[in-house]
Amino acid sequence: MKTALFPGSFDPITIGHENIIRRALPLFDKLIIAIGSNTNKKYLFSLEQRTNWIKKVFEKDAKVEVVSYDGLTVDFCKKMNATFIVRGLRNSSDYNYESTIAQMNHQLDNSIETLFLQTTPHLSAINSTIVRDIIIHKGDASKFVPKAIQQDFIKK
Amino acid sequence: MKTALFPGSFDPITIGHENIIRRALPLFDKLIIAIGSNTNKKYLFSLEQRTNWIKKVFEKDAKVEVVSYDGLTVDFCKKMNATFIVRGLRNSSDYNYESTIAQMNHQLDNSIETLFLQTTPHLSAINSTIVRDIIIHKGDASKFVPKAIQQDFIKK
Amino acid sequence: MKTALFPGSFDPITIGHENIIRRALPLFDKLIIAIGSNTNKKYLFSLEQRTNWIKKVFEKDAKVEVVSYDGLTVDFCKKMNATFIVRGLRNSSDYNYESTIAQMNHQLDNSIETLFLQTTPHLSAINSTIVRDIIIHKGDASKFVPKAIQQDFIKK
Amino acid sequence: MKTALFPGSFDPITIGHENIIRRALPLFDKLIIAIGSNTNKKYLFSLEQRTNWIKKVFEKDAKVEVVSYDGLTVDFCKKMNATFIVRGLRNSSDYNYESTIAQMNHQLDNSIETLFLQTTPHLSAINSTIVRDIIIHKGDASKFVPKAIQQDFIKK
Amino acid sequence: MKTALFPGSFDPITIGHENIIRRALPLFDKLIIAIGSNTNKKYLFSLEQRTNWIKKVFEKDAKVEVVSYDGLTVDFCKKMNATFIVRGLRNSSDYNYESTIAQMNHQLDNSIETLFLQTTPHLSAINSTIVRDIIIHKGDASKFVPKAIQQDFIKK
Amino acid sequence: MKTALFPGSFDPITIGHENIIRRALPLFDKLIIAIGSNTNKKYLFSLEQRTNWIKKVFEKDAKVEVVSYDGLTVDFCKKMNATFIVRGLRNSSDYNYESTIAQMNHQLDNSIETLFLQTTPHLSAINSTIVRDIIIHKGDASKFVPKAIQQDFIKK
User: Fold this and answer.
1) Residue A31: is its pLDDT beyond 90?
2) How far apart are CA C97 and CA D99, in angstroms?
3) How far apart are CA D39 and CA D68, in angstroms?
4) D22 is catalytic
5) Has residue C142 been placed in a domain?
6) Closest CB to C113 among B96, B107, B117
7) Which residues have a Cβ under 8 Å from the Cβ of A7 and sit 6 or more positions away?
8) Mean pLDDT, to the nearest integer, of D67-89?
9) Do A103 and D118 touch (CB under 8 A)?
10) Structural domains counted in chain C
11) C103 half-sphere exposure, CB direction, 13 A CA radius
């Protein structure tokens, strides 16, 4: 059984995340969306809210599991029997950052491989930080989040 | 009437900013320098101080207007009837960051275009963060700020 | 009168080029599409063919002029009274290459400014070299060229 | 059945290629090493020689198939029933180049996904062009090629 | 006498730092490891602890001196009669960041040159932030720190 | 005795090369400018012409030696007893390319270190290819070459 982890903050989940997850799904028997829950980090949305949105987006995808975790990603992979990590790349800054983490994870546990997918071009500018900025400033962020949860982001 | 916005923190304005603004001026009928005033962000200099310096630098440029703003840049563009945003680029990290913001802004409001100018080579290392660092450590930052305000930065 | 030059090989013109040109048009009174015609360079399509396609794409745009040139771009700018060069950027490799040329041109003639626009996300992967490769290998490149000339690229 | 294509010139195969292929193998039922055989391109080694080396390196790997191809990679994927392309990344220049090709391929045929693996750190400088340069200049390139074929590259 | 400064936080020193320092040593008569001690910055380890580890790693290297400093790096260079700064580079994001600082330092004091060494490939993913993250999460970071201090990092 | 090699095509030498060489000189007892003379490569200027220009530029610098070479750079280093290679960096594309070569050279002969200097900002756009392009098109390239040889490049 091939199990992959897709770790992230998902604060909130965007159409960029959704796109990578759906495209990676055919490769695996199980894909675990692992929501980071770091007590030292400040999130805009609660863990419960972030979790509920992701569950709604993938409620019809039997292979997708949604969990939260704290600690090292490689330790959580081992606990979940996941031997692959999936990450999306948008540009070369993403690449420099993510490839370093992938190499460190591989050195911590060489049974874990990270696979990268290039974001679909029309989604390559979607950025959680900017999405949060839009929400904080009462802008309409609905076009940047998955269809299943868009109504929660429409500006009234 | 072609109106452009040049948004930034200007904490403080540097010769890098001044160079981009002066080179972009011939393209527009009005160029609005929009000083970010984000209550969650800590600035080294007060909004009043940052504004006064910029006004002094451009006091003879009739096309330049200096204002402060909070909120989304695209919303402020609309309020000011600006359809262009001008940004300077120094290196590929700048480029990756700025191009993502430009694309997000275009998706939020497709009547707004962002134009990039490459920093003049001898100014390509000027960086507000490092300028602030010099000031904090009592160094002489005068060579990195516009002539009109240099005397305020000379180390005594 | 504000005149800009958009230089390139256009071998052939793609929807990426068209997008940048249309978005830059509102800024200028005239935009000259300058087709490089370098005797030392091998093109897939003849200068005549490349020119005809571009003319067809912009036949309703009174501000657009299509010409060919050989020699230094800054010399041709001067001859055409163009004080701006427009270039599109797709990723940081483009940026490193284009910004160097822009700086050299500015040093050769400091009355000439280069303006960069970021490619619209869904077009950011369009690349003339790959388009030519598709054509050479009898693939269907029609989705990568402007609508007005698509029929010439459909694979039969 | 999950089939992936690993396309390249392999002129010659290096330990960098071998590393990516071995790490990608667990994900697939079949991995086709597709050796580019472009009549317009000059290779240092003949197609036969390049093929023989690869076959020797993977002779004990039942999942690996070695073939040559000309034409578009997506067309060859379809012919071989491969729905994944695997590529290695060494640095951000690689990334910019490979991600553009991946996006173009996805637009030509959206049933084909490209997966990227980051080269293992100690192999991240292995570069076929430099390896060829070493060979041309009678240097010892044996440490840069897979163990199974090293004896062919030792400088006498 | 050629004196170089190798500035950093060393929170903690890694095998990446050690590698750059040892490779740079033959160039200089004295190499000063300058530990940043910025009161506004939060460190995981105390200045004393960071200093002790570095001293232990280089206790047999007569050319190496270990000091702490606050303030501008160029001011500290002058105080220590160091005319060279040594920095390691791992990837292009490092490069963009470090080259800007090097240029600013050169503009503040043009008698100071910064020399860059490329990290040895197998160490190019070592990153202090990730090492700290491993330590915080009770992981085993011993393989990322110099041999002389590894026992302090082994997970019990 | 510390000997460094500064390899290149120098077709022709630019103020960018000169700047890096002069800044690196204080570090070494001898700096060998090694002019590549590759029979498979086409140069704009003859080896003799390229050599004469460099000799003229550095005629008063006793530490500088000018030689030509063919073959692997590491082999030539050994022959000349040079244990350092010096290279200039202008932007992140340069960096990606040069760092790969540096790592390969270090793997071929680990007694050889490559040192990088960042180009002085106002010279960071100087590019031999563009300089050659200016010369080919009868432009004035004199401002891009060292003072000592400028008269050979002035456009009449």
Assistant:
1) yes
2) 18
3) 12
4) no
5) no
6) B117
7) A34, A36, A69, A73, A76, A85
8) 97
9) yes
10) 1
11) 26
Answer yes or no: do B103 and C120 touch at CB < 8 A: yes
Query: What DSSP string runs through F81-141?
Result: T--EEEEEE-SHHHHHHHHHHHHHHHHH-TT-EEEEEEPPGGGTT--HHHHHHHHHTT---
**Percentage of chain C exceeding pLDDT 90:** 88
Residue E11: alpha-carbon gap to chain centroid: 9
The 10 Å Cβ neighbour count of residue B155 is: 10
C90 carries an active-site annotation: yes
**For D116, what's the count of Cα atoms within 13 Å in the CB-facing half-sphere?**
28
Supply angle C-alpha B100, C124, F94, rounded to 5. Answer: 80
Contact list, C124 vs chain A (CB under 8 Å): 121, 124
Q: Which chain A residues have a beta carbon less than 8 Å from that of B100?
A: 90-91, 125, 127, 130
Answer yes or no: is E153 within a domain: no
Task: Respond yes or no: is residue D17 known to be catalytic.
Answer: yes
For residue E106, what are the domain limits? 3-124
Q: How far apart are CA D121 and CA E19, in angstroms?
A: 15
> Which CATH number covers residue A33?
3.40.50.620
Q: Which residue has the higher pLDDT, F128 or E85?
A: E85
Strand partners, D85: D5, D114
Cα angle, residue F4 at apex, residues F3 and F6 outer, rounded to 5°: 150
D127 neighbors F131 (Cβ within 8 angstroms): no
Give the pLDDT score at F156: 64
Residue count of chain D, please give it.
Answer: 156
Confirm if F98 and E99 have CB atoms less than 8 A apart: no
D62-73: average pLDDT: 96
Active site residue C155: no
From chain E, which residues contact B within 8 Å (Cβ)? 71-72, 74-75, 92-93, 96-97, 99-101, 103-104, 107-108
Contacts 24+ apart (CB under 8 A), E150-155: E152/E53, E153/E12
Name residues whose C-beta falls within 8 Å of residue F74's C-beta, 6 or more positions apart in sequence: D139, F105, F108, F109, F112
The pLDDT > 70 percentage for chain B reads 99
Residue of D nearest to E124 (CA): D121
Is residue F19 left, alpha or beta, with left meaning phi > 0 and alpha meaning psi from -120 to 50?
A: alpha
E144 within some domain: no
Contacts of A140 in chain B (CB under 8 A): 108
Instruction: Considering the candidates A41, A42, A60, A122, report the single residue annotated as catalytic.
Output: A41
E interface with D, Cβ–Cβ < 8 A, is: 91-93, 121-125
CA distances from E95 to B56, C3, C6, D125, F91 (A): 35, 37, 31, 17, 8
Q: What is the pTM of this model?
A: 0.93
**A-chain residue closest to E136, CA distance:** A71
What are the tens digits of pLDDT across the range C41-78? 899 999 999 999 999 999 999 999 999 999 999 999 99
* Residue B156, pLDDT score: 64
SS3 track for C94-134: HHHHHHHHHHHHHHHCCCCEEEEEECCHHHCCCCHHHHHHH
Beta carbons within 8 Å of C53's beta carbon, 6+ residues apart: C10, C12, C13, C145, C146, C149, C152
Of A93, A126, A139, the CB nearest to B75: A139
Does residue C104 form part of some domain? yes
Distance of residue D95 Cα from the nearest chain A Cα, in angstroms:
7
Cβ-contact B70, B37 below 8 angstroms: yes
**Residue-by-residue pLDDT tens, chain E, 156 positions:** 999 999 999 999 999 999 999 999 999 999 999 999 988 889 999 999 999 999 999 999 999 999 999 999 999 999 999 999 999 999 999 999 999 999 999 999 999 999 999 999 889 889 899 999 999 999 899 999 999 999 999 876
Q: What angle do CA C33, C38, C40 make, to 5 degrees?
A: 160
D108-148 pLDDT per residue, tens: 999 999 999 999 988 988 989 999 999 999 989 999 999 99
